[in-house]
Amino acid sequence: MHPPLTLHRHPMCAEIIEQFQKCHLDHPLGKFFGECTDLKIKLDRCFREEKAVKRKANFEQSKKLRESLQAYRKEAAGTGQ
């Protein structure tokens, strides 16, 4: 199962999504018998790569937020005494 195939939400995989959707339109019955399987595998790999990029960006953002929060707590602890 894959997420909804909207191009604006998956810019890294837009080309593969278009190819996959075209394959489904060109082979309405063949899609059930493995006609588009190679594209599906490429699409799944692209989604995995996209998720890894997003995960890394989120981790960096949380790291910055954590550091700023620790600095704030340190400052607040210093002024409270």
Structure in a nutshell:
The protein is built from two helices and no strands.
Descriptive overview:
The chain is an all-alpha fold. It is 69% helix and 0% strand. The protein has one domain. It is rod-shaped, with a radius of gyration of 22 Å.
Fold blueprint:
Elements lengths: L13 H13 L10 H43 L2
Q: What key phrases describe this protein's structure?
A:
69% helix; 81 residues; rod-shaped; mainly alpha
Mean pLDDT over the residues: 90
Number of domains: 1
**Number of beta-strand segments:** 0
Helix percentage range: 55-70%
